[in-house]
Amino acid sequence: MADAPRTAHLGHTRLDLDRARRTGLPEAIYAAGKTPQQCVEIVSRLLESGDDPVIVTRTRDEHRDALAPLSPVATVGSTLSWRHLPTAGIAPVVVVSGGTSDAPVVDEAIATLQACGAPTGVHHDVGVAGLHRLLEVVPELSDAAVVIAVAGMEGALPTVLAGLIAAPIITVPTSVGYGSSLDGVTALLSSLASCAPGLTVVGIDNGYGAACAALRILGRGPTSEAP
Questions:
Q1: What residues have CB less than 8 Å from 40, skipping those under 6 apart?
Q2: Cα separation of 227 and 2, whole Å?
Q3: Are 76 and 110 in contact, with CB atoms under 8 Å apart?
Q4: Across the chain, which distance is largest between two alpha carbons, in Å?
Q5: Sign of the C-alpha dihedral, residues 64, 42, 93, 97?
Q6: With a threshold of 0.70, does the pTM exceed it?
Q7: What is the pLDDT of residues 55-64, one digit of tens each?
Q8: CA 133/CA 180 separation, integer angstroms
Q9: From CA 80, how far away is CA 29, in angstroms rounded?
Q10: Are the beta carbons of 123 and 100 closer than 8 angstroms?
């Protein structure tokens, strides 16, 4: 019989200390809705346990100020991380965004990938409203192991990409847009109804989830062996 999963009870939180062993992906702390002190207690306990990456997403200034004494390895946008895995010698995961306003979601994906040792690349603001911008970077995307396409408005970017490159494409619809974009619902439904076969779609603004999907495709995580 397998050993029972280890947990840590902090009163406000029950930490899953064996998630990386079971799934290959570390547990992330979602800071939104948590106090700075709760985040400090959670990160401190995780840093005392094992040697897997520690990731905190959706922080605010007060979270970052409270966590600064714990010396995060990297701060990318609102995502903080500790104990990065060595970067693997494999083709990169490339993140592309439809517009500059999608940057917070891009940052969350990039931060998660880098913490887990995946080489990364990024192209901002290559949406289909100026298709020539996307076509300029297609040669680089063709060499990617996985492409994460981050787009709001009508969410056309991933469908166009899927007709141009062979790499797996993970779509992140964002809540960027006016009126009938409906805070990302239109981009989400557009992605789910895409005529391009084989797209993977995660939830609205879920850069962390997209990065984890890419890591699963790569077989890359704390329990994987370096090539």
A1: 66, 67, 70
A2: 27
A3: yes
A4: 57
A5: negative
A6: yes
A7: 999 999 999 9
A8: 25
A9: 10
A10: no
